[in-house]
Amino acid sequence: MDNNQLGVKYMQEGNWEEAAKAFNEAIEQNPKDPVSYINFGNVLSAVGDDEKALKFYQKAIEIDENSATAYYSIGNLYYKNEQYDLAKNMFEQAMKKGLQTSDNFFLLGTSLNKLGHGKLALPYLQRSVELNEKDTEARFEYALCLLQQELIDEASLQFEECIKQDSNYSDAYYFLGLVLAHKGDMERAYSILEKALALHPDHLMAKQAKSILKKISETS
To answer: How far apart are CA 90 and CA 72, in angstroms?
Structure first.
């Protein structure tokens, strides 16, 4: 096991100090290997030292301007700090450099959506779900984006799939309830909202929606 592999093992165990030592030794042994700098940056990011982490990622790009993972890692830093425009640029660079992963498409799509570019975000979120069908969080964000673009039927299918994958996903129940109400299926919408509240009794929006549906049913 080389030092990079050893460092990753320590990271998985949460042993940041030993991970840092292993990656530092990897850099000393091969200072022209961008992977070691990225790994060291990941340790720094994990312990909250984003400023130093950024320098290590930038060093990796200096060594290899096509290091897609370095761009992705910088994007993660910006995303974590809610700098979505900068994050979007980095995720786009990672994609152009060949990183075609579910995570990169998901974060690129989510960044675009947070910047108010929902229509542009849709294909990236869709691709993220296609690449990792079991990623319920990605599917939920995709469903929200569909809903924001008023693609009601498509959003409904995705929210349905979310609750199939995770029967305790209260927000998915809530939004599915709204979609069903919009489509006129008031009885099931009410039932779905009740499920959301059973899972999360303090879900204020679900409470409000359920109350509105109850009033509608009483006056109809």
So the answer is: 6
